[in-house]
Specification:
alpha/beta, 3 domains, Aspartate Aminotransferase, domain 1, 46% helix, 3-stranded antiparallel β-sheet, 523 residues
């Protein structure tokens, strides 16, 4: 039995509250705390399984044998594949046909890409090159450039990774291994942010000194957004801050940085902090039309992390990527190391190359992901890289635009229903992902029930106690977000994982609980 629920992290509290509801009472249980989307993208998946079926047939060089061969270049494979697709007509086949007509997007001829894709999905070879398969590189880079980097045509490299969480771990570790960051160094965190970004710096192996750069809620023309003031951004002028970590669009506020905020950040870095290391997590960027990443404005200083998990409904696939410009601050700062740190870095990576000083930061990431000694077996699995290629191609081709409109439309409609039920002002649609909503319950209670009740509630209750009551009495699960850097009474409601019609119920249950509490106080 847990006695101090206030001490639990947001996700631990959610698991605890869910366990408190008996199975017999879960028929009307609404979990609006989890961020897992309840949609998937069927077309690239259909294409994936068609490719897998065809590739398996291509390995059957000897009939009536339980052992198949490998994928090797063969004449007429493309012809056989086109005949195969004609026999399996449908959206997946149509998508693959369109892909093969786009050699520029594939980065190679249709014949070469098809053979590489078949080899990848069979998965009988180590990833080579270890950093990124040639078959996946061009689709992935073009997708990131168009969806996140505002088509700036930046020259950059990519490292496909096992989802965003693996990318976070790899980046933190390699920054330490290369002495770009040392335990106890000062870093900046843009808040609110995904809770692990606040928890990782406190781990004993890092124990960073954290400067918090806080966004504030702004209501302009009746629309809500969260932005960083120039005063907050000016904290980055402190030369003791070595790195800044950003989730953009943010989790839990679901808000992207405005063009004005990006310009202010760009000016600070260019004028005062050209040495600043920036890591931006852009997993929600594709939910904002015409989104622009920090990487697009500050490519030299920025490492960009992206995951396909949310947009394509692919959390179980564990597919993401790290992008770093070919000319970057990470490489330059490693070259400037001297004394013991330089010697330690040379010694760590000397088994990779006769010239360890010339190894790029992104290749150090790849090597560190397998603790150097197992570098020969590094790289994301080849079947996962094929899925990345197909997701990327789908996002780029004609049907992908319609898919984006539908996904954004689903989230916006759920947000509209919830906001209407709670009487909240709408979010700025130009910057809002509508994937989550971060609600300050105390602010909402004050507006709905008045200051007197809000004051009594604040004295006699806590945000965690309110969440416990919502779960036990109203069978509604929300996530507390003060550990994300939000206000003490803020909660996150996911707009991704319930049926659209259920968001009216989410609002109704919140109101029902506070109506009960209000009546009790009035009585």
């Amino acid at each position: 039995m847990i006695t101090d629920v206030d001490a639990l992290s947001p996700f631990e509290l959610s698991l605890y509250l869910e366990s408190r509801v008996p199975p017999a009472e879960r028929n009307d249980w609404l979990d609006a705390g989890r961020g897992n989307p309840n949609w998937t993208a069927p077309v690239p998946r259909a294409a994936y399984f068609l490719l897998g079926d065809f590739a398996t047939q291509e390995t059957l060089h000897v009939q009536d044998s339980r052992i198949a061969g490998q994928i090797t270049p063969q004449a007429q494979r493309l012809t056989r594949f086109k005949a195969f697709l004609a026999e399996h007509q449908g959206p997946g086949a149509d998508f693959l046909t369109e892909c093969l007509s786009q050699p520029k997007l594939l980065g190679m001829s249709a014949e070469a890409w098809l053979t590489a894709a078949c080899d990848a999905i069979i998965g009988d070879n180590y990833p080579a090159p270890a950093r990124c398969l040639d078959m996946a590189a061009q689709p992935l880079k073009t997708y990131l450039d168009e969806e996140l980097f505002a088509k700036r045509a930046i020259d950059f490299d990519v490292f496909p990774v096992e989802g965003g969480t693996a990318g976070i771990c790899y980046l933190f570790d390699t920054l330490i291994h290369t002495h770009l960051l040392d335990p106890g160094d000062r870093i900046a965190l843009f808040l609110p942010t995904f809770a692990p970004y606040l928890e990782i710096p406190e781990l004993p192996q890092y124990h960073f000194d954290v400067v918090k750069v806080r966004a504030k809620q702004v209501i302009t023309k009746g629309q809500t957004q969260y932005q960083y003031s120039v005063g907050e951004l000016d904290k980055l002028r402190d030369p003791r801050i070595k790195a800044a970590f950003v989730v953009n669009p943010s989790n839990p506020t679901a808000n992207a940085m405005s063009v004005q905020t990006l310009a202010a950040l760009q000016k600070i870095v260019n004028d005062a902090r050209p040495d600043l290391l920036i890591l931006t997590d852009d997993v929600y960027g594709t939910f904002v039309p015409h989104f622009m990443s920090i990487f697009a404005t500050l490519p030299y200083n920025t490492a960009c992390l992206y995951s396909f998990s949310k947009y394509f409904g692919a959390t179980g696939w564990r597919v993401g990527a790290i992008a770093i410009a070919k000319h970057n601050v990470f490489d330059d700062q490693i070259r400037r190391l001297g004394g013991a740190p330089k010697d330690q870095v040379l010694e760590r990576y000397e088994s990779l190359s006769p010239d360890p000083e010339a190894i790029h930061f992104i290749d150090r990431l790849v090597a560190d992901s397998r603790d150097i000694a197992l570098h020969h077996a590094a790289g994301l699995s080849t079947p996962q890289q094929l899925m990345i290629a197909l997701f990327s191609l789908y996002g780029l081709l004609q049907d992908g635009a319609g898919y984006q409109q539908e996904v954004i439309g689903i989230c916006r409609e759920r947000e509209r229903i919830l906001f209407t039920a709670l009487g909240l002002p709408p979010a700025d649609p130009h910057l809002d992902t509508a994937y989550y909503v971060d609600i300050d319950l105390m602010q909402w209670v004050t507006q709905r029930y008045g200051q007197a009740f809000a004051k009594k509630l604040k004295i006699h209750s806590s945000p965690t106690q309110i969440l416990v009551q919502l779960a036990e009495r109203k069978h509604l699960l929300l996530l507390k977000t003060s550990p994300f850097g939000s206000d003490a009474w803020s909660v996150r409601i996911s707009l991704a994982n319930l049926a659209t019609s259920q968001y009216q119920q989410v609002g109704a249950r919140i109101i029902a609980l506070f109506d009960d509490l209000h009546r009790k106080v009035e009585a």
